[in-house]
Write a structure and sequence with these properties.
Layout (H helix, E strand, L loop, with lengths): L12 E8 L5 E7 L4 H15 L5 E6 L10 E7 L3 E5 L2 E5 L9 H12 L4 E6 L5 H7 L4 E8 L2 H11 L8 E5 L2 H6 L8 E4 L8 H10 L3 E6 L2 H10 L3 E9 L9 E8 L2
Parallel strand pairs: 2-3, 7-8, 7-10, 8-9, 10-11
Antiparallel strand pairs: 1-2, 3-4, 5-6, 11-13, 12-13
Length: 265
């Protein structure tokens, strides 16, 4: 396992991801291709060496393809299964295969701002480990929150994170595809919909279901302004009332965008 391993045709070494938290916890995630016996022995020894550096958690994940993805199927781990970080004064457990904002301080400002527009019955699509859901539940104008996420590990952590909330009775989580969940909901089942999809955006099917459901307000958070713009243009029954950018990754081209839409009567 040397630096040149990544550049070979086999590309055995894919990524080494370092996650750190405000609580001085460190999670190391090594991602490789499927190993042969010699490589397995080398990685096993490497995991032990990495753990001896003082890391809280060390994971080895295996990916079958050569796509640009920084995680795979968990093969082994040393230390704790999760680490804990803080956003908006609340602690959240995270895993190697769960998404969590790296810039937690500015992410807290973003989610607090978004939650200020939440009202009544709230649906949180692509909820991850439950950050937006739990922050929204703290708002007195919010009566209930349903978080929906397709990643089973994220939902497991969301359920655990829910237990730390003083408003946990307001919150429930569902493991489901966003579009499939929306299709089962009656019209006007929710007053506010918050969504924070991955870079491909919500997509035509989910947007069509939102138009059918007719929530009074849609709060759309995106890490990809181009797909967000595509989805917003399709929400023709809604008026854009707010757009704000958040520089979660300074010195890069990336920007997080918060958009608030109001249903036109």
């Amino acid at each position: 396992l040397n630096a040149q391993a990544y550049n070979t045709n086999n590309r055995f070494l894919r990524y080494l991801v370092v996650r750190t938290t405000q609580h001085n916890e460190v999670m190391l995630i090594l991602t490789t291709m499927q190993p042969d016996e010699a490589q397995r022995e080398a990685v096993t020894q490497l995991l032990t060496n990495l753990k001896s550096t003082g890391a809280t958690s060390v994971y080895w994940t295996i990916t079958k393809g050569t796509s640009d993805t920084s995680t795979g199927t968990i093969e082994a781990f040393l230390g704790t299964q999760s680490i804990t970080d803080t956003i908006a004064g609340m602690q959240f457990k995270i895993d190697p295969q769960t998404f969590f904002q790296a810039n937690t301080k500015l992410a807290g400002a973003l989610f607090e701002r978004a939650a200020a527009f939440a009202n009544g019955r709230v649906l949180d699509l692509c909820c991850g480990v439950g950050v937006a859901s739990i922050i929204c539940a703290r708002k007195p104008q919010v009566t209930s929150v349903v978080g929906v996420e397709i990643n089973e590990q994220s939902i497991t952590r969301a359920q655990e994170n829910r237990q730390t909330s003083n408003e946990k009775e307001k919150i429930s989580f569902v493991c489901a595809d966003a579009s499939a969940f929306l299709q089962k909901q009656p019209q006007e089942a929710f007053d506010t919909v918050i969504c924070d999809p991955a870079r491909p955006g919500l997509g035509a099917e989910a947007v069509a279901e939102l138009l059918r459901l007719r929530p009074k307000r849609i709060i759309y958070i995106s890490c990809n302004p181009s797909t967000q713009l595509r989805d917003l243009a399709s929400l023709h029954q809604y008026r854009l009332s707010l757009v704000e950018g958040y520089d979660l990754f300074p010195q890069t081209l990336h920007v997080e965008v918060l958009a608030v839409l109001e249903r036109e009567e």
